[in-house]
Amino acid sequence: MQLNEQVGRRLRALREERRLSLSELARRSGLGKATLSELEGGRRNPTLETLYALTTALGVPLSTALADQAGSAPPVPEARARASGDAVTALLTERHEGAGAVTEVFRVRIRAGAVQRSGPHLTGTREHLYVLSGTALVGDPAAPTTAGPGEHAHWRADGTHVYSAPHGDVEAVLFVRYPLAAGPYRTMAGPPTDHSAVPGAAPGTGPSTDAAAPPAGPPSDDGSTRA
């Protein structure tokens, strides 16, 4: 199955679980209803920006839309776990659930001269970028952080944030950490953890604790910094 078909099926299943109409999800995500219909039908390739808009509106981490099916575990097949945006190509390599959070690990490339502006993710989400090569300018658009090879930048991702590579392509590893209390999102192994924020949706069960805990992660202090 191609990525667009796989993602379309997952998005439709997530929308129907939450008893949302196409019109309501389109409104919440800021996308057109026709665009959303094409995405769910597998007739349009989703960009990274589109996937984030939809998964945030649905209250799920990005990797939930990239999974083959509920209950599948990482690693996700490479051909089905890659998405691109205005500046960033991201390959999902790992996903961990546990210790009160979902942590996604992406291998990313930021293309030289391009800028990607990402809208807010779920409340409490943080991103940590470890630069392997090149120089990245990332984080808060008003005060972006510069990080070169061997350096680390982190920022709150529940507000608008940017990625750019002003001096050449950047290769990096990106950790995205979503607190389980952030919203009514679905874990890979079960139904939505809490539907209280989605009007009309059925109540869910608690998060699964069977999955592996995330690896020892980067610091969790607020603000964008460089290490």
TrEMBL record:
Enumerate composition-biased segments (Low complexity): 199-227
Location of region: Disordered: 188-227
Q: Which InterPro entries match?
A: Cro/C1-type_HTH (IPR001387), Lambda_DNA-bd_dom_sf (IPR010982), RmlC-like_jellyroll (IPR014710), RmlC_Cupin_sf (IPR011051), TransReg_Diox_bact_type (IPR050807)
Question: Which Pfam families does this chain map to?
Answer: HTH_3
Keywords from the named record: DNA-binding
Q: Which Gene3D superfamilies match?
A: Jelly Rolls, lambda repressor-like DNA-binding domains
| Cellular component, GO annotation | cytosol
Query: What protein does this entry describe?
Result: Transcriptional regulator, XRE family with cupin sensor
Origin species: Actinacidiphila yanglinensis
